[in-house]
Amino acid sequence: MSTGRWATQGTGVDEQDLLETLGNKYSAEILCAAQSPASAQELSDEMGIPIATCYRRIEELVEAGLLECEGRQLSEEGRRTNVYRRTLDELAVDFSETVPSFSCKERSEAKNRIQDQME
Q: CDD domains this protein is in (predicted)?
């Protein structure tokens, strides 16, 4: 696992904001479900999350650098929608110092391609 401030580097998100984002209802569930590309509607339907809440959580997770827009796809209704995938597989928080520090295991592009081929 890499260590340091990965999740907050260059994002404008500080440690407290990141913890708040992760603590919001549904954030962790969205990250777990987004191991493969999924639209907000797919995530909402899969987890039974209200669509407006799902969009808010996705926006927060993208701003924190934990989720990224991977592209666009056609929905069942024929509309182009963004699809999202998480950017990491593991995240640990160390509270032993005055400021939390983070360790993470990022998702590699190779892992994403392999997983896409398996689906």
A: HTH_ARSR
